[in-house]
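ESCALATION

Customer reports they have been waiting on this structure for their group meeting. Please prioritize. Original submission:
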Amino acid sequence: MKQVFSNLHIGSQEDYENIVKHQEGWYVIHACKEPYHRDALGYKGRAASMNHPEYLMAFRDNTLILNLVDAPDPAYISKSIIDEAIKAIHDNINSMKVFVHCNQGFSRSAVIGLLYLHKVGLISTDNFSEAEQQFIVLYPWYNPGEGMRQFALSNWNNYKSTR
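Update from on-call: job pushed to the front of the queue and completed.
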């Protein structure tokens, strides 16, 4: 787990289970389907029903639970999920610590963190490769899967700061 900006921390499932889960004052974004989305909705098969009102994301107390897999194809990454995660960070970062995690802490949570920092102008370059290099200084474990990286690259300008 690493703090990449004031009140914004990124990490892994292990960090959540061993550290954050046992503390008060956190807003948590589970950026992984397994086990959190499955547990929240209680489905047993491969996936929740696409008709379920919380198919993409579920809200519980100070928690956003995403149905987000580290798909190799960016077509399977829902922009609305990423948008909601960035909104949740923005809505909570001034009142509590925010922890974004995925299973390993390399890909989904890291990309969400990178896009948030770009959205608020803390990483302001239009060049995505330069932005990745800047972010690696803040979060050395950044190592996105191909789908998450391609999603971020193709949507980079959509998350550009409006400052």
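Sent to customer with the following note: The first strand starts at residue 2 and ends at 5.
Escalation resolved.
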